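User: I'm new to structure prediction. If I give you an amino acid sequence, what do you actually give back? Let's try with this one:
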Amino acid sequence: MDRELQNQIKKMTEEGLNGFEFTHQMKDEVRKKVSQKNKKEYRRRWYAPFVSFGIILVIVLIYGLVKGEFNPFPGDEVKEVTRGFDEVENLEDFESFYKKVKNKKKAEIKVISFGIEGQEGIHHVRFDGNNFDLTFKVDGDFIGKHECEELEYGENRDYGKYVLQGCRKEKDEMATEITLLTVPFIVDHVFAKGQVIDKEVIGEKHYVVMDIRTPRKYAKKSDFIKIEVRNKVLWEQMNNGEFYNVRYGWKLEDDFILSEAEKAEN
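Assistant: Good question. You get back a string of structure tokens that encode the predicted 3D arrangement of the chain. For your 266 residues, that looks like this:
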């Protein structure tokens, strides 16, 4: 059957076919042939599932990079600094970040802190060489995003503080300051029991000299330790010869600092 005859048969209606001496079997064969010609052959490629999986993986990777959830390059992961009650973990990583910022080099870091009820707060800071992009989350929930201009460091008697300045959520919004990290100078705290041996005033500072009984930490030739008491009312209440349960801390290159004291039995 040539092509022209095939085209004529395709155009035939049921009534047209009745005009010829075709049997029902012949009509069915013609319909079957026409139907097969109209259908396009579909062949499933063996690699199709892998292509689909690859597309999904690329979308997930792009989403993760945009949201800042992970870094796909293991050698270039974002450093994390944790602010504890009286210490900072991985402080050297933050100091390295600060040095890069001052040298106008691109840098990135996460600062983790904890609320009084255990909430985990994360400040994620990216520096592009000119400005800072700050994202803040609590327990994984997005809280806010700021663009900041400067990162400055300052200190007082008790701690150093890194502050982001010129921070705005929107371009027309009034600039604010955001404290990124505080670093306490008191590097260790001790709970102990001791007896007040003497009280001193040097300049504007008030001290108690104590004979620490337990534990005897920091003691060298003598068990006597001079501790600064910044609470003047507490200093006035402490008496020579009496015993106290105290909590004090050691400040780098400076005095011991008294945090609290409670009268104890002799």
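You can read the tokens as a compact description of the fold. Here is one thing that stands out. The chain has four domains: 3-38, 47-74, 78-184, 186-263.
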